[in-house]
Design goal:
This protein is of the alpha/beta class. The protein folds into 2 domains: 114 residues, 3-Layer(aba) Sandwich (D-Maltodextrin-Binding Protein, domain 2), CATH 3.40.190; 153 residues, Periplasmic binding protein-like II (D-Maltodextrin-Binding Protein, domain 2), CATH 3.40.190.10. 31% of the residues lie in helices and 21% in strands. Helix 5 packs across helix 10 and helix 5 runs antiparallel to helix 11. The chain is globular, with a radius of gyration of 20 Å.
């Protein structure tokens, strides 16, 4: 039998605890205003500060300009990038703020359209102008869409406090792993599952959910032993469920995340690139990340379809 410690050699773990400094409600919040009383809504970046950029607005395709909206495909269940506030209706998160700011530069209003994560990319160009939903850039996705990068993020293993089921990221055979369907971590776990079987080891069970919130709940309830998610997502889950969850290990290699547009749509690609570059230049980009305590995902320069 092959040494099971070699099964996960493609995953480079380091001991790390993700710390996300969340900023509380600092405005005068009264009980009469439920949105103002919600710290996640209060934490959101004030996009009214973002002014229309005439040069960028000229790049907006006529068909989009006529609608007055930038339609953004988002799976609103991936906190702190995008999730629903306490009212269950208001999308919040750093990618929500980012999408709204991009639209403001264009002289448009962002129309946030919630969808299952794995259904977004196939509908970009028909249903959505752009997809901004924690998409890790990879070769498979670039067959269908073009990307403009705006962040770097790695992956983390998260367990219940104290690691009660003795999860070892180097050998997950015999464990139940929870994750969101269609995320970059899914094929990594599928490969690990095959290797467990090839080595006649205990089976690795993958619990794949359409929404990240359900994946987190599976871990919290004890149905799963470990969760595999983007490090900002795992870190936020640990904070929101203080004392119940902890990050076990994080990958050492951060990968680019990008806004996705229809493959070959040069006009939309140029528009999104120009708007992202502007937000990086004027400081709004970093201000948004700081609001949500995820400055560690920041990049210095955006790229179109980077080598991965």
């Amino acid at each position: 039998m092959t040494n099971s410690n070699t099964i996960f050699k493609s995953i480079k773990p380091i001991a790390a605890i993700a710390t996300l400094a969340l900023i509380g409600c600092t405005c005068a919040c009264g009980p009469a205003d439920s949105k103002a009383a919600d710290p996640d809504v209060a934490r959101s970046y004030d996009v009214s500060k973002v002014q229309k950029d005439d040069e960028i607005a000229k790049l907006v395709p006529e068909s989009v300009a006529k609608t007055g909206e930038l339609t953004v495909g988002v799976n609103v269940s991936y906190a702190p990038a995008e999730f629903f506030a306490a009212d269950g209706k208001t999308p919040v998160g750093y990618e929500i703020d980012f999408s709204k700011a991009l639209a403001k530069l264009m002289g448009l209003k962002a129309k946030i359209m919630h969808a299952q994560f794995d259904s977004i990319i196939p509908a970009i160009g028909s249903k959505y102008n752009v997809g901004i939903s924690g998409f890790t850039v990879n070769a498979e996705r670039m067959k269908s869409v073009d990307f403009v990068t705006y962040a770097n993020a790695g992956l983390s293993f998260e367990v219940r406090k104290g690691n009660p089921t003795k999860v070892d990221p180097k050998n997950l055979c015999g464990k139940k792993v929870t994750l969101e369907t269609g995320t970059v971590g899914e094929p990594i776990m599928e490969e690990a599952k095959k290797q467990c079987a090839a080595n006649n080891d205990k089976p690795l069970e993958i619990m794949s959910f359409k929404d990240q919130t359900d994946a987190t709940t599976a871990l919290l309830s004890g149905r799963a032993d470990v969760m595999y998610a983007d490090t900002p997502v795992a870190g936020y889950a640990a904070i929101k469920n203080s004392g119940k969850l902890e990050i076990l290990e994080s990958s050492n290699d951060a990968e680019p995340m990008g806004a996705a547009v229809k493959k070959g749509d040069a006009k939309m690609l140029k528009l999104i690139k120009a708007a992202i570059d502007k937000l990086m230049k004027n400081g709004v980009y970093k201000d948004i990340l700081k609001k949500w305590g995820v400055e560690n995902v920041a990049i210095k320069k955006s790229q179109v379809n980077p080598e991965v």
